[in-house]
Write a structure and sequence with these properties.
Blueprint: H1 2-18, H2 23-48, E1 54-59, H3 61-64, E2 69-74, H4 79-89, E3 96-99
Antiparallel strand pairs: 1-2, 1-3
Amino acid sequence: IDKERNRLVLALARARAVGQTDAAGIAELEGKLAGIDAEEEAINRREANTRAGYVYVISNIGAFGASMVKIGLTRRLDPMDRVHELGDASVPFRFDVHAL
């Protein structure tokens, strides 16, 4: 993200230094720069809040029986990604989700 921001800042400075009259091009660069700033702010918020996440309760009756559940924590934006990841490679059947 830092490299992309630096590239956009340099491109914007060059466009202004040359006296580029293409207002749409400058506005596009400024919009991309604002998007990068928002993305970085979201990343910083997630890094600062390390206790945030999703607790999931899943089971796989076909592989482990009815009395076995897995309770886990994921910090992913979509917790179902983690459930699908666990079910793809490690067991012959998909996990049943009991709680998120």
